[in-house]
Structure formats: C-alpha cells, structure tokens
Amino acid sequence: MAGIPEHLLKRAQEARDKAAGKTPASDSSGDTPNLPAKTSETKPAPAPQVASAPPPPPPDPSYVVAAKTRKKIPFWAMATLSLLPFWAFMYLIAIKPQEKIVEGPMAIGAGVYGTCAGCHGANGAGGAGRALYQGEVLKTFPKIEDMLNFVYAGSQQFISAGVKVYGDPNREGGAHETLSYNGNPMPQQGEKFGGGLTDAEILGVVCHERYEISGADEQSEQWKTEYETWCSPESEIFLALENGSVNYDNLAETYAALPNPPANVGTDARPAGK
C-alpha cells in the first residue's frame, strides 16, 4: 500500500480533532516556510566631530633647552655649597698676616712720631728735616745715648755750646754738622728747654725711629742688647723714666750695675761719646 503523505495525515487528524471539539495541536515545526528574519536596519551613528588640534607650541630657545637638559646639583651638595662663604671667611682669616703687637716705648714712640712726620716724612724719607729711613739714623747715631741727647737739646743748644758736629764724627758718607741741612734746625724736645715731650716719650720716639723707620733688627747681635736695655717692653730704664724715678742726667749712674750699663745721656748739648 502506497504510503499516505504525512501532511494529509496531519490534516485528517486536525479534522477529527476539530469535530471532536479539540484544539488542534500546533506543529512546532510547522509548515511555515522558513523566511528570513526581519532585522531592523540600524543606521550608523554619525561620526563625532573632532575638534581640530591646537598648533604645537614653538620650540624652546636654546638657553631654555640647555637649562632643562644640563645636570642639576645633587641635593646633598647643596649643604656643602651653603658652607662655602663660611670656609672662605675662615680662609681669609688664616692667611691674614698677624699684626705686630707693639708695647712699651715702641708703642709710645709710634704715637709721638706723628708730630715728627711733618718734617721727616711719614716713612722717614725726609722733607724739611733729614731722612731717617734705610739706616740713615743708625749711621749718624750708632749709640742711642747720643741720639737721645740731640733730640732732647735740639740744634740751637748745640750751636750755643759750640758743638759743630752732632752724632758720629766718622759717619759713613760724612759727618752731620749742626744746621747743615738747608739751615733747618732740629727743635728741642726736652722739657728743660721748653720742649713738649717727657723723657719717656723722647725715648719712645727715638726707639721707633731706630727700629721701625731706620730698620735696626732687634734680633741681630748688633742691636739686640741696645733693644733689650732701652726699647723692649720690659726695659727697666723706660719704666723708670715713665714713673719719673730717673732722668737723663742721672740714669747712667743709677743703672751702672746692669750687665750692659747705659752710657751718659745728659740734657745739655755735648759731642758724641762724651
């Protein structure tokens, strides 16, 4: 028997079910032809408008590029650099020559010499009065006692006493005759003849002229004894002149017992060595 097509069997079954009041079963598989599913057409969204990019900034100048690219100072080095001013200050103090401390007759003499500088020059180069620097004083007065006598009494007292040469008559370069330098006199400084300096001040300025201006070396064998006796801060003679216990007329006798006793100074004009 020929096979009955399936769709006819389904229809017959549906008719029977319908007659019986049954709801015909739906065929899940159905005879609905396979149609392509309708898909909603999605229109593509319009592309967002992109703002135009700003123009690139101009390139940095060369000095800015150099500043940005050069190596920076490390943080730890900043502390060291901050101390440089302090170290520079300490270095300057270290290399600064120590000022010579002047005491005793030399200190007094440095102050008194200001009144002498008008004639002899601030550095002893001379002017209205004779030059005192570069050993000139030491040539004229090898002995400090003769210089003290001349400064105390002054030229006029030497003229009055008939003393034609003051200082060493055998002086290197020639003896100095009284009033031989342009006729300018050496003013008297001692109080006995109206001068304004004390005996201690005269000693001070003479020491200053011999050792600071004329250049005598207090450490040398030639001048060491004289310096210690007359011009050092510990000089007994200076201290006695300062307190007034001796004067130029009696100090030679007073200190005759010293290991290196002084010669006579005196206040009256006299030839050298007398």
Secondary-structure topology with pairs:
Layout: H1 6-19, H2 62-69, H3 75-82, H4 84-95, H5 104-112, H6 117-120, H7 136-140, H8 144-153, H9 155-160, E1 165-166, E2 176-177, H10 199-213, H11 224-231, H12 236-243, H13 251-254
Antiparallel strand pairs: 1-2
Helix pairs in contact: 5-10, 8-10, 10-12
Sheet with the most strands?
Answer: 2 strands, antiparallel
- The global form is rod-shaped
Q: Going across the major beta sheet, what is the strand order?
A: 1-2
Distance between the termini: 189 Å
Beta-strand percent range: under 5%
> How many helices does DSSP assign?
13
Q: How are helices and strands ordered from N to C? A: HHHHHHHHHEEHHHH
Structure description:
The protein has 13 helices and 2 strands. With 274 residues, it is mainly alpha-helical. The longest helix has 15 residues, at 199-213. The radius of gyration is 60 Å and the shape is rod-shaped. It is 41% helix and 1% strand. It starts with 5 loop residues before the first helix and ends in a 20-residue tail after the last helix. It has a domain at 107-254: Cytochrome Bc1 Complex, Chain D, domain 2 (Orthogonal Bundle). The protein has a two-stranded antiparallel sheet with strand order 1-2.
Short description:
With 274 residues, the protein is mainly α. It is built from 13 helices and two strands, in the order H-H-H-H-H-H-H-H-H-E-E-H-H-H-H. It has helices at 6-19, 62-69, 75-82, 84-95, 104-112, 117-120, 136-140, 144-153, 155-160, 199-213, 224-231, 236-243, 251-254, and strands at residues 165-166, 176-177.
